[in-house]
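Sequence and structure are no longer studied apart. To make this concrete, we show below a single chain and its fold as tokens.
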Amino acid sequence: MANRINRAIAGAICVALSLGGAQAGEKISWDQLADRVASQSTTAGVVENRSVAVITIDGRAHHTRKLCIDTEGVKLDHGSRPVEVLLRRDVSRIEIRQRGRYIRRITYNAEMALFVACVGFSADEGGGGPLALLSPVVSIPFWAYTAASAPVFLAAEGVALFRPARVFEIMQ
């Protein structure tokens, strides 16, 4: 009997978690889009450190981590690859997910610790001076912060996986 109840509860949880992806998008005009997206970013019309999918009228999905919205269309910044520009008449849907938002914080903290350690080694040309010996000691607080904050950020990232995407249906 308990096994059936556990299965029913597990099934209900799975159904509840999967309902977020089945929601219809919010219908919005292009002029309102930048203001609505600004609620999720610090810069108006720019979405950074989120998983963004831009679906065109022909059904192709364009994925990026940084999206710029202006009056002409959207710019998808892929980092090392060239910026991709989609005109507003070609965009039919924009999906913004929270995924990958906190992983960047962990990598940034680790990069700062490495930077502090490397500065001391590069400042001492011979490599055996006092800066080379002191730089690992100075970087310890950065490593400690990275190690202490990583579990919190990873837990937040795990919760973000289950949050539904924010979907905007563009009305032409």
About this structure: The chain has a mean pLDDT of 78. Residues 105 and 153 are 8 Å apart (CA to CA). The first helix runs from residue 2 to 18.
